[in-house]
Design goal:
mainly alpha; 4 helices; elongated
Length: 71
């Protein structure tokens, strides 16, 4: 019940999670659109949910774990 009260007071009760990382963020980092986009975006969402990381921390891990491909 405490969690429910907290989520209601923060006005996030029954609302979808707001993603921190979008495709445009990956493009701004230098990634090219492609099949790997979904994998990276899914990875970012897992980091956000399971590790409670902020946008900067997630971007740091993305650039560390995924190579920017030059075409």
């Amino acid at each position: 019940i405490e969690i429910e009260n907290l989520t209601q007071s923060l006005d996030i009760y029954n609302k979808p999670l707001k993603r921190l990382i979008f495709g445009r963020d990956l493009i701004n980092l230098g990634f090219k659109e492609g099949l790997e986009f979904k994998e990276i975006l899914d990875y970012a969402l897992v980091l956000q949910i399971e590790n409670c990381l902020n946008k900067e921390e997630i971007i740091n891990l993305i650039t560390k774990n995924y190579k920017i491909k030059s075409f």
